[in-house]
Design brief:
With 879 residues, the chain is α+β, with helices and mostly antiparallel strands. It contains 29 helices and 27 strands.
Length: 879
């Protein structure tokens, strides 16, 4: 029996005294599970009092807190330094003799012959309903012998002060003096199979399904992300397996004479299911019991040895998404074929009412003019081959009848030679000499006017004219530069792979990299600004210490010329930033002009500048030079060894592909060239409507339809009372938020919607339409390589500041304005995009793996998830 003093240091596994304060979050949870009769392996708790005794008797308390107070969450160097010093003190400390004896005697009572145990850290700020702290402290498996247990306990205590734990607590606002750590010592389960059970689907939020991850051996292979597990989706009510994905399980965690290690899985077992249906059903029943015990969805670690199941840990699922919203995707026309492709790749979210009613008609008119030019004599039947909205998401209607399709193809074939010359041969001149200059001229003409003095009706006329010029500009790109780029690169790649590439030759993409495209120029401009700021006394320190929002607020308040009170370096920084924004600030995050632009809020650019101020940032000039050198070396090698017909073919294909590779990015970078003026005019109208008490905020103007904006403008000009739209706007905003939470189908009808002219285009879709349930997501192999890291889901420019160097960027799409994030990212995953989309091109330039067009990435992946991005196979594994 333990003395009263001993019982404050050691507790039985199912002790009611094992509270969070005494046994930590993990220990308290295990005690609760064991007391409820669930199959928890036997063991005991070493309480937080024991840890505090160790710290006090080694006189470490004040030193630890002082050192921890110097660690800053945003500065990894301070975290590493504090952790190293505290860890050294903990290793050098002496475990008091009475504590050591107590640990030994508790271990000896577990059984004869030095039983193998798991020694698990259990911090007081861990496994809580709102913060899991998963993986912040250490666990040691297959520990045998009292001396080894003592050392493992010391290492667990020390793990309270790892750099990742210090940083995590700092970001969560938890003070170092408020945390302590307990240790759980349990009999090690000699698991044949182990894994994780989620009592609700952590990806979709569905409460009616459970998700079981399972792999051979101990569970560390799954927790550590070293193996892709089998995934079983189980109906919570019936215990039936609804679906299963059996992975190729290459490795497993096994016991070694000391500790654990990885071992290859035998060939026959790699693709065998780890669980039978009855095992999954039994796990589901345990999951239901655990969920009822806690009254909320749970994340449960389990193991199976022989025919017995054991519960190793249970914690609340944090950040569980709300159950998915549902929308009615009934077709506007039963004969229609609706697809989200082409320009819609730049419109990932539901459209604002003003964009939908102003811009879509302009695009449709431009498209009809283009079709008339390409297929004279064929009149496109309304509303076919047009842009429209379903649940406020943009779709193309490709629902031509068979006869209409035949007539259109015949009309185009009759002019095929002219079409090829028009679309491909004249692609560059049509854009550079005609469409872009016209677009720029229209925007400049309106931008030069005094909008505050302009009649309200003119404030609506300006966006009409600019948007139509923008539509003509985009359709010129779409019918020329884009197909020219896609076709030339595809033909070169095909010819290179089939006729020229040897085993040790670089991939075809090498020949397309290192060009000075507009996004690369924008990145180098920010790098130059950061390089200049680094040499200014005080300025670099100010930029590093300040939030991007504070820097932007000061920049916006700095008049031109800057106040005399501002120092020279700040004034010059403002001037250089303004020069950058004048040149690149029109790049769109989203084509919907209701969304802001970098020129209005450059906070994301400040984040990039702050990154370039660090030693982690790679010099874009050096990266581009290396890519250009590799490209030229590969091209020279190709020219030297290819002769005759093959030599002629590559001398024709390579310059063609290299001509359009950077041109595509240059053209797409300018799709929002007129958007600063469009937004200025509409926000001025919004300002006047606020003064007229028609709407509450200037931005509410984007939630009006074009007819409503016209009527309001006419009323303002006539000095009549203006209709109040506040309630209408509030309702539309609320509906938009609900729609935004839903991932729209890539094609409608959902089955067979990708067929056009009798051809199934699902393989070329910008987003997958056949994504299976589970933790493995498939997409397009957009940029080669394989990387594991932490996900950062970015849904809007306002969240750019969440990205940290080494994160994996997860987004619906990326446009040229997203390029600064690529300097931080270790990998990229998107909902929409293909091998030749913007995200693919830029990811290759940055040499980071990318998987695009998954269709569901932002729905299934959450920030802080561990991911493995395999750009070679087009797979993303959620760990």
């Amino acid at each position: 029996m333990l003395s009263a003093d001993d019982e404050s240091l050691v507790l039985a596994m199912d002790s009611p005294a094992a509270t969070v304060g005494r046994a930590g979050g993990k220990g308290a949870s295990l005690a609760r599970l064991a007391a409820a009769g669930l199959p928890v392996p036997p063991g005991f708790h070493l309480t937080t009092s024991m840890y505090r005794r160790f710290v006090d008797q080694n006189h470490l308390g004040e030193s630890i807190l002082a050192e921890a107070s110097e660690a800053q969450a945003a500065d990894p160097a301070t975290l590493d330094r504090a952790s190293a010093r505290i860890s050294a003190w903990m290793r050098q400390g002496t475990i008091p003799a009475d504590i050591a004896m107590l640990i030994r005697s508790s271990y000896d009572r577990m059984g004869q012959d030095d039983p193998r145990v798991a020694v698990r850290s259990s911090a007081t700020a861990e496994d809580l309903p709102d913060m899991s702290f998963a993986g912040q402290q250490d666990t040691y498996l297959n520990v045998r012998g009292a001396d080894a247990v003592l050392e493992a306990v010391r290492l667990c205590w020390t793990s309270l002060w790892t750099a990742r734990a210090l940083g995590y607590r700092a970001r969560q606002g938890i003070r170092s003096e408020d945390v302590a750590i307990a240790v759980v010592v349990q009999q090690l389960v000699p698991a044949d199979v182990a894994g994780i059970l989620f009592t609700a689907d952590p990806l979709t939020g569905a409460r009616g399904s459970m998700v079981i991850n399972a792999a051979w051996g101990l569970g560390e292979a799954i927790v550590g992300g070293h193996v892709t597990p089998d995934v079983f989706i189980v109906d919570k009510d019936t215990g039936e397996v609804e679906s299963q994905t059996i992975a190729d399980k290459e490795v497993m965690t096994v016991r070694l004479p000391v500790g654990t290690g990885e071992a290859p899985v035998a060939g026959r077992q790699r693709r065998r299911a780890t669980l039978r249906s009855r095992d999954a059903a039994q796990l589901a029943r345990l999951g239901v019991e655990i969920e009822r015990l806690y009254g909320q969805p749970m994340d449960v670690e389990w193991a199976k040895a022989g025919d017995r199941l054991f519960i190793l840990q249970a914690r609340p699922i944090t950040a569980l998404p709300d159950p998915p919203a549902t929308l009615d995707w009934t077709l506007p026309d039963a004969r229609g074929r609706y697809m989200r492709s082409s320009v819609i790749e730049l419109l990932p979210e539901p459209l604002s009412p003003l964009f939908a009613t102003l811009a879509l008609p302009a695009w449709n008119a431009a498209m009809r003019d283009l079709m008339t030019l390409l297929a004279p004599g064929f009149v496109v039947p309304a509303p076919r081959l047009t842009l429209l909205t379903i649940n406020d998401y943009a779709y193309y209607d490709f629902g031509l009848t068979t006869w209409q399709s035949i007539r259109m193809v015949a009309a185009m074939l009759s002019r095929s030679r002219r079409i090829v010359a028009f679309c491909l041969g004249a692609a560059q001149s049509r854009w550079a000499d005609q469409a872009r200059p016209h677009y720029a001229r229209v925007a400049a003409d309106w931008g030069a006017r005094d909008m505050q003095a302009m009649p309200a009706s003119e404030l609506v006329k300006a966006p009409r004219e600019i948007v139509r010029a923008a539509a003509d500009h985009y359709l010129t790109i779409q019918s020329g530069i884009l197909p020219a780029a896609f076709t030339s690169e595809a033909l070169f790649t095909l010819a290179y792979d089939r006729l020229a590439k040897r085993a040790d030759d670089p991939p075809a993409v090498t020949f397309m990299l290192g060009f000075d495209s507009a996004p690369m120029q924008a990145e180098k401009s920010l790098f130059d600004l950061a390089a200049w700021a680094r040499d200014q006394p005080g300025l670099a320190d100010y930029l590093t210490r300040s939030t991007s929002g504070d820097v932007v607020a000061r920049y916006m308040l700095t008049p031109s010329p800057a106040r005399a009170a501002d120092d020279d370096s700040w004034r010059e920084f403002c001037r250089l930033l303004t020069v950058h924004l004048d040149r690149f600030g029109h790049a769109v995050y989203d084509l919907d002009f209701a969304k802001g632009l970098p020129t209005e809020d450059p906070a994301p650019l400040i984040e990039a500048i702050k990154h370039f101020l660090t030693t982690q940032a790679r010099n874009p000039y050096e990266r581009q030079a290396a890519a250009a050198a590799a490209r030229e070396q590969a091209a020279q090698s190709l020219r030297r060894r290819l002769h005759g017909l093959r030599g002629w073919l590559f001398r024709w294909l390579l310059p063609l592909a290299q001509r359009y590779a950077p041109l595509r990015e240059d053209a797409l970078a300018d799709v929002g060239l007129g958007w600063p003026v469009v937004r200025r005019s509409l926000l001025e109208l919004g300002r006047r409507l606020v003064l007229a008490d028609s709407i509450r905020e200037r931005d509410d103007v984007f939630w009006l339809t074009l007819d409503e904006a016209d009527a309001a403008a006419q009323a303002l000009d006539a000095r009549r009372a203006v209709t109040g739209f506040s309630q209408v706007v509030a309702g539309r905003r609320a509906a938009w938020e609900q729609e935004r939470a839903v991932t729209p189908p890539v094609s409608l009808p959902i089955k067979g919607g990708m067929r056009f002219l009798g051809i199934d285009f699902s393989a070329t879709s910008p987003a997958r339409t056949d994504q299976a349930a589970g933790h493995i997501i498939k997409g397009h192999s957009a940029s080669p390589g394989r990387v594991s890291g932490i996900a950062c889901v970015i849904r809007s420019p306002g969240e750019f500041g969440l990205m940290r160097a080494g994160d994996i960027l997860v987004a619906k799409i990326t446009t040229p304005a997203w390029t600064p994030l690529f300097a931080l990212a270790a990998g990229v995953v998107t909902d929409v995009g293909g091998p030749l989309s913007h995200g693919s091109i830029v990811a290759r330039e940055y040499h980071i793996p990318a998987v695009l067009g998954t269709g569901v990435a932002t729905e299934r992946i959450h920030t802080a998830d561990r991911l493995t991005v395999d750009g070679d196979r087009g797979l993303v594994t959620i760990g």
